């Protein structure tokens, strides 16, 4: 069975990265001031100067792809593949999952599209997509084999985000406003480990002060031998980036740097950074 993998733009995938693979992705939507609606692509962000608007405290939110867009994407992929596996942005971040389940249950797609529920986030999903693409080379694998892989990644990967703008995070409804208001008064940074039930990893006056707690959480989930990815936006201050680099270099830890997908910046500010980790044994070869 020839399988195609569908993600969305919250995964950090790019056109260059998926070229020649069985992976495709559907862009989410970006909304500015409740009026301007455009696709979550690099070209559109440059055109609308999204990151500057966020930095200037402008109203920038996200929206899921429409059922019509999803129908069109499924139809397009089913011309190439026998079956499509769809991993959307997690259901506690967006209604995209519920929309995908609804569309996949239509008679046209029933038995041809499988939507997996998961609580993975950001660039971890990109790495999972690459692993699942490798799996598609074995056409004897079943949908259940892919589901098992997702479950393993859920246990052996870790996504920790440190929001840069607690006002923005609270206004978007993705955090408890009472807790956020307290943290604002204390001028406190908070590290949040994403999952089905997001949990606080630690609080501190600076991002650097949270580093030890972040590393502890990473190792307890992804293990000591993991791929660590430090993510930030194109508008994150060089000062903050250098502080984190210096801290990681002090303890001689190996890491890579990537851009955090724009939906996270839209909802948590340009100074939002993340630490993503995956057990190296799970990665695509």
Automatic annotation (TrEMBL):
SUPFAM superfamilies: DAK1/DegV-like. PROSITE patterns: DEGV. It comes from the Bacteria. GO terms for molecular function: lipid binding. It comes from Spiroplasma chinense. This is DegV family protein. Keywords: Lipid-binding. InterPro entries: DegV (IPR003797), DegV_C (IPR043168), DegV_domain_contain (IPR050270).
């Amino acid at each position: 069975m020839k399988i195609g993998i569908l993600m969305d733009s919250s995964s950090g995938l790019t056109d260059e990265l998926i070229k020649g693979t069985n992976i495709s992705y559907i862009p989410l939507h970006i909304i500015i001031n409740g009026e301007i609606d455009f696709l979550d692509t690099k070209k559109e962000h440059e055109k609308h100067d999204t990151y500057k608007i966020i930095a200037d405290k402008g109203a920038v939110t996200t929206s899921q792809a429409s059922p019509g867009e999803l129908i069109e994407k499924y139809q397009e992929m089913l011309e190439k593949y026998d079956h499509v596996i769809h991993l959307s942005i997690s259901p506690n971040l967006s209604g995209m999952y519920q929309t995908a389940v609804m569309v996949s249950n239509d008679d046209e797609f029933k038995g041809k599209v499988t939507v997996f529920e998961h609580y993975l986030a950001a660039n971890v999903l990109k790495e999972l997509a690459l692993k699942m693409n490798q799996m598609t080379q074995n056409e004897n694998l079943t949908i259940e084999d892919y589901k098992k892989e997702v479950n393993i990644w859920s246990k052996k990967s870790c996504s920790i985000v440190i929001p840069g703008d607690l006002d923005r995070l609270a206004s978007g409804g993705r955090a408890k406003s009472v807790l956020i208001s307290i943290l604002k008064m204390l001028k406190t940074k908070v590290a949040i480990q994403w999952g089905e039930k997001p949990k606080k990893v630690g609080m501190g006056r600076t991002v650097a002060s949270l580093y030890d707690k972040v590393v502890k959480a990473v190792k307890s989930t992804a293990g000591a031998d993991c791929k660590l990815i430090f993510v930030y936006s194109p508008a994150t201050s060089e000062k903050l980036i250098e502080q984190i680099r210096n801290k990681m270099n002090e303890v001689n830890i190996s890491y890579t740097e990537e851009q955090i997908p724009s939906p996270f910046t839209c909802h948590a500010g340009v100074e939002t950074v993340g630490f993503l980790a995956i057990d190296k044994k799970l990665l695509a070869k």
